[in-house]
Design goal:
The complex is a heterodimer of chains A (about 300) and B (about 220). Chain A has 10 helices and no strands. Chain A is mainly alpha-helical. The radius of gyration of chain A is 22 Å and the shape is globular. Helix content of chain B is about 20%, strand content about 20%. Classes of the chains: A mainly alpha (about 300), B alpha+beta (about 220).
Chain lengths: ~300, ~220
């Protein structure tokens, strides 16, 4: 299907989108980690861990993500117009969930009422899924529109949340629940690793711009190996151990790796792998006499 | 129903860029922003090299991804199929731009001028539109001409006054504009008589620009 890219082809091959930069990535980075942390704050609460600190940090991260978006848009004073299209726009839906998330989150922190804590966790999951669907709905970017991006984004957010929950628990000497959180993180990094390979094989199978695939290949080592499979092994060792020190330090190291790699992945996805569709012709036109030429799809795998 | 659409005969286009210039003149787009551009696609290896000139722009899709994702309803689809942007509502989030598979949307964040920011021409100053700064813009199929022309009883695609500027300007008559749903329109008849495709049709957006690459299949060329 693809033909070699000629030297004069110019911008017919996919080029990187220039509309969403680090500020847009910030929404997914902070929003994913924040909602994940809110979810794990609720889970920790069930086991008797402190709720206020992780929940507040989670909400602050979500707020930071929204501030990033606000800084990105061309007409920030019109930001409220974002609420006008709930019928089909995932960006509107994300924005609609946000006030409920903050209001119920603050109420849960204030009252400690368990039903409210769970309601906040559900809203956080909804917010996270809006973010994942938002990326998938971007039909102009092949690396984003693949349906397998949805579980990957959601699992990445949850991994970051579990990691942050471990770090918060470690920092606040709330060590009694570390093992539970580490068990959750182990399951999540395993699922995220599988989702990563499913996503990449989906892109290979369905086709994607060569440079987008290359950008994703470049994070195989830091994201998949160091950020995913290494923590998996470390967490396994930590969970098998009865040493408090081993559980603590391996948990912290794993959390830092899983958390940092999640952020790296999202930054790369938005600012490095977001090559657009480019232009393609299923047939080249007949010129004078003779027949038309074969298809031309420069820059595609 | 009416569905305004366009056909581009790739056999005729010679890449002169007159349509690009006409569009820029008609719509006063800033430097670097071309709502209608002509790609120069060269493929193959010597001696089997092929070249095609391919006009592209907003496809005014029947199922526009940009309209679905727009959080503000600034992007809308009219009953006649034209996809429009309300500059007063758009927040410039760029979501439509990443949703468009045809790279048809542009957002500029400041005024620029052809001969430098400190040397605007009088014509540029006169036609500068602050409403178009930091919001999404794109080809409108010259909807103002279509609407004004129809009010006068003119037929878009037939009467130049009601026809998009790029179509009027084409020196090789490569463009044909008209109502896809009217079986008697010049566009519909041409599509009947030729072999054509739409770009990225597999993405399911129902684009409104048809590319003609051969005459109707007769056993040579078109059916290969």
């Amino acid at each position: 299907m693809s033909a070699p890219l000629g030297r004069t082809a110019g911008r017919t091959a996919p080029w990187h989108q220039s509309n969403w930069d680090l500020r847009a990535a910030g929404n997914f980075v902070f929003g994913g980690a924040g909602t994940g942390l809110v979810v794990f704050a609720a889970i920790g609460y069930v086991f008797g861990a402190a709720y206020v600190m992780p929940a507040l940090i989670g909400l602050a991260l979500v707020g930071a993500g929204l501030l990033c978006v606000w800084a990105e848009i061309g007409r920030p004073l019109r930001a409220m117009n974002v609420y006008r299209h709930a019928k089909t726009s995932w960006m509107t839906r994300e924005a609609m969930v946000a006030p409920f998330l903050f209001a119920s989150g603050l109420a849960a922190v204030w009252t400690g009422y368990q039903a409210l804590v769970w309601a906040v966790a559900v809203l956080a999951l909804v917010y996270l899924s809006c973010q994942a669907q938002m990326i998938k709905a971007s039909r102009g970017i092949p690396a984003w529109r693949n349906p397998r991006i949805v579980p990957l984004i959601m699992l990445t957010g949850l991994c970051e949340g579990a990691s942050l929950a471990i770090l918060v628990a470690a920092a606040t000497a709330d060590h009694a629940y570390l093992k539970w959180l580490e068990a959750f993180l182990l399951a999540l990094v395993l699922a995220r690793g599988l989702a990563w390979y499913a996503y990449r094989s989906g892109l290979q199978h369905e086709g994607a711009p060569t440079r987008a695939l290359a950008a994703l290949s470049r994070i195989e080592l830091p994201f998949a190996m160091l950020g995913n499979w290494t923590p998996l092994v470390l967490l396994f060792i930590a969970l098998a151990s009865s040493s408090v020190n081993v559980i603590f330090w391996l948990g912290v190291i794993s959390a830092l790796a899983a958390f940092g790699s999640g952020w790296l992945f999202k930054v790369v996805l938005i600012t490095r792998a977001a090559y657009n569709q480019g232009f393609a012709l299923p047939r080249l036109p007949v010129r004078g006499t003779g027949s038309g030429g074969p298809a031309a799809k420069p820059g595609w795998h | 129903m009416t569905r305004w659409a366009m056909a581009v005969d790739l056999r005729r286009c010679n890449g002169c860029q007159t349509c690009t210039t006409a569009c820029r003149q008609a719509n006063a787009t800033p430097p670097g922003v071309q709502w209608r551009q002509v790609l120069d696609m060269e493929t193959g290896e010597f001696p089997e090299v092929r070249r095609a000139f391919v006009p592209v722009g907003c496809m005014h899709c029947g199922d526009p991804p940009c309209e679905h994702v727009c959080p503000t309803t600034a992007t809308k689809q009219r009953a006649d199929g034209l996809v429009t942007i309300d500059y007063d509502i758009c927040i410039g989030c760029g979501y439509c731009a990443v949703a468009c598979p045809y790279q048809a949307r542009h957002i500029v964040h400041r005024n620029t001028f052809a001969f430098g920011d400190d040397r605007p021409m009088e014509s540029e100053l006169a036609r500068m539109d602050p409403e178009r700064i930091s919001v999404a813009t794109k080809c409108t199929f010259c909807k103002d001409r279509i609407d004004a022309g129809r009010e006068k009883g003119l037929t878009p695609g037939v009467d130049p006054e009601a026809t998009p500027a790029c179509v009027n300007s084409c020196i090789t008559d490569a463009y044909v504009f008209g109502d896809r749903d009217d079986r008697n329109s010049k566009l519909s008849k041409l599509l009947e008589e030729t072999t054509h495709f739409r770009m990225h049709e597999e993405l399911g957006a129902d684009p409104g620009i048809y590319y003609i690459w051969d005459r109707k299949a007769t056993g040579t060329g078109a059916d290969q």
